[in-house]
Amino acid sequence: MTQDIMALGLTNIALELQDDGVLIARLNRPTKRNALDSVTVEDLIALFSAVPRAGVRAVVLAAEGDHFCAGLDLVEHHREDRSPAEFMHLCLRWHEAFNKMEYGGVPVIAALKGAVVGGGLELASAAHVRVADATTYFALPEGQRGLFTGGGATIRVADLVGKARMIDMMLTGRVYAGQEAVDVGLAQYLCDGSSFDKALDLARAAAQNLPLSNFAICSAISHMGNMSALDAAYAESVVAGIVNTQPDARARLEAFANKTAARVRPEGMKD
Ligand code: 1HE
């Protein structure tokens, strides 16, 4: 079934499926700094609509060229001279794509480099894990362009960095990079080498988990964030009822019980 995903015929996203079920999806408009035109947004919708039912175990979302993503295609936007209703509908397509990523139940690890700006940061913030390298920088230049965010930054970026930092980024054009970007929550990892290699390692590790566990981790937590604490606790117990009794988990529990399973240890500590 994973093969079906290779037949999607995407225009601006290149796919590579690995034997362990990890799918590498690369934004593939490097000459335009992977700016998100309407075709790429439709590609993202097609891709992340197919991923949950295609047997993909984890996705590395990466990019060709030196920059992850320059955000909204400003040249297309200028050329199209859109009406308010047209742009609203375009934003709804962005939300369709990013919601499918965030709520799809399959881990998406973003390998970030160069510019992760505007809608590029909105895209990255819909991934479950963000990996930065020494070249990666984050910004929301909408304010300087006479624009506003339309791809979910008011929800996801505010969630990552907090309302005050997001407002500062938009008002002043503040750019975050390096350890500071990790400290404020824009990325969970900063690596010396390639963010792609690290993201692939993380995706491979996540792909070892049972798919139903990953489904809960990569959909239920986001859904529960939208609920009252009372409803979230109820939903959590229902999800745990299903996940924690899955037959596939029995072998893992048995391995723990008979002491053959790895113990949880900090890095470097011997058993
Ligand atoms: C683009 C775009 C784009 C590059 N739309 N074409 N986003 C921004 O405000 C970021 C705008 N881009 C930049 O600031 C810079 O291009 C970069 C820092 C990302 C890269 O700089 P650099 O020097 O490597 O490239 P460049 O020379 O600026 O651009 C190279 C080409 O990419 C050029 O095309 P060419 O045909 O003239 O070669 C650029 O036009 C093209 N390009 N970025 C279209 N964004 C749902 S609302 C979301 C709101 C937003 O996302 S606002 C956008 C914020």
> CATH superfamily name of the largest domain?
2-enoyl-CoA Hydratase, Chain A, domain 1
Low-confidence stretches: none
From the alpha carbons, calculate the radius of gyration and give it in angstroms. 19 Å
**Which CATH C-level class of the largest domain is it?**
Alpha Beta
Bound molecules: 3-methylmercaptopropionate-CoA (MMPA-CoA)
CATH architecture of the largest domain: Alpha-Beta Complex
Structural class by SSE content: alpha/beta
How many independent structural domains? 2
Secondary-structure element order, N to C: HEEHEHHEEHEEHHHEHEHHHH
Q: Give the end-to-end Cα distance, rounded to a whole number of Å.
A: 40 Å
The beta-strand count equals: 9
Number of helices: 13
Largest sheet entry: 6 strands, mixed
Structure keywords:
alpha/beta; 2-enoyl-CoA Hydratase, Chain A, domain 1; Lyase 2-enoyl-coa Hydratase, Chain  A, domain 2; six-stranded mixed beta sheet; three-stranded mixed beta sheet; 9 strands; 14% strand; binds 3-methylmercaptopropionate-CoA (MMPA-CoA)
Structure notes:
The protein has 271 residues and is α/β, with parallel strands linked by helices. The protein has 2 domains: 2-207, 2-enoyl-CoA Hydratase, Chain A, domain 1; 227-257, Orthogonal Bundle (Lyase 2-enoyl-coa Hydratase, Chain  A, domain 2). Helix content is 49%, strand content 14%. It is built from 13 helices and 9 strands. It has helices at 2-5, 38-50, 74-80, 84-103, 119-125, 142-145, 153-161, 163-172, 178-184, 195-207, 211-225, 229-243, 250-257, and strands at 13-17, 22-27, 58-63, 108-111, 115-117, 129-133, 137-139, 176-177, 189-191. The strands form 2 sheets. It has a 6-stranded mixed sheet with strand order 1-2-3-4-6-9, sandwiched between helices. Strands 5-7-8 form a 3-stranded mixed sheet. Helix 5 (119-125) packs across helix 7 and helix 7 (153-161) packs across helix 8. The protein is globular and about 65 Å long. It starts with a helix and ends in a 14-residue tail after the last helix.
